[in-house]
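Write out the bound-state structure for pyridoxal-5'-phosphate.
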Amino acid sequence: MQYISTRGGMPPASFSDILLGGLAPDGGLVVPAVYPQIDIETLAAWRQLSYPQLAFEIIRLFATDIPETDLQDIIERTYTAHVFGSAEIAPIKTLTPKLHILELSNGPTLAFKDMAMQLLGNLFEYVLAKRNETINIVGATSGDTGSAAEYAMRGKRGVNVFMLSPFGKMSAFQRAQMYSLQDSNIFNIAIEGMFDDAQDMVKAVNNDATFKAQYKIGAVNSINWGRVIAQVVYYFKGYFAATKSNDEQISFVVPSGNFGNVCAGHIARQMGLPIQRLVVATNENDVLDEFFRTGVYQVRGEAQPTSSPSMDISKASNLERFVFDLVGRDSAKLADLWQQVDQAGGFDLSATAFFGQMGSAYGFTSGRSNHADRLATIRLVKQQFDVVIDPHTADAMKVALEQRDKTVATVVLETALPIKFEETILEALGERPPRPAFADALEKLPQRVDVMKADVETLKQYIVSHIG
Ligand SMILES: *Cc1c(COP(=O)(O)O)cnc(C)c1O
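---
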């Protein structure tokens, strides 16, 4: 399997070549030259597989330059009951016939990002060792991404993580999750400022090409291709769990921010998984809902803070991968559209045939929710089904209840556990979600964090003095 850039300016490269990188050198996103096709016999054979077996069958189609015995070992070490709470890894919960929740947040940080990040940690360690290389991951987080990255990379040879977070802005639970890690390759840096200040510092470090090359600075953000393929697996798993035979269709409703999660659903569909609808659910930051409803993609100036904070984005980084397929994989056309994004903040497909194809050929629809909708949905799901969902999953559930076709299995992707967002649950239900014993224990552990002023030079010195 070879990888190319959506913008056409990268010589074909192997999986191991692109795994550690971010954007393609021409500013585009890496995509496989073709999508592997899964025929009906293969689909029937896969129905019987365990999660790690299924993951191996799917990922080997994309990571063709990793010897199969090595890949199998990496996957079996990643998707264990010990790490994900059950042998199912991503169990399905049925609320009512043909309405299900696919649980993706039983990993170490209780959010779906673990599903991909845990694999990435093991893949990074493997590829770095093969190439005798090291990487220093520098990132900024307001919660989920940073902790998922730290739990995936802790103790991994060849990898250091420098994770910036806004001082005093995260919940006690989120702080405890990250700052209690004592691994010598994990550095928590609390910035005296907001999340945006932290993110600007990360950008500044990355824009210094000399520093970046000398100190092998890298990232694990949502455009990383390794993350996308790891996510493809649970769409297949969700399909097998919610249907009885391979002539049935399925629809997925996905709480979306950067379009990373649902991009994997698109790829599963392109591979031949019988998906009827891929429903993109946003919060008030509704760039994606607007795009799928109107054909207009318009980046916002700033994201609005909401009660589903992990979906608070002003642009959807992974959307370029879908639009590349939508325009018939024409990289000149794609590059022209993203030039319009750079110059005018967006583009308009409403007058083109592509607009209709988003739904008719690719199965996409969309919806949005606001804070009141999320509270009402959390209440409704508790009352009707005795299940407590987190505010991100509530974004999707609200849209699912509005749009679902009751003759087709609908699977809502659960992206976090309610315990991560206690305040919103309290507001919705009048009581806090049940608190597992480990949460209290976690908050009592000693914490390890360095406080830093929002200054790029100070950060660079910190990185230099902490890499051995
Ligand atoms: C990251 C995240 C999302 C959004 O996922 P995308 O891949 O960015 O669309 C939704 N919910 C939770 C809890 C998340 O952490």
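---
Residues 85-110+225-429 form a domain with the Rossmann fold fold (CATH 3.40.50.1100).
The longest helix spans residues 113-131.
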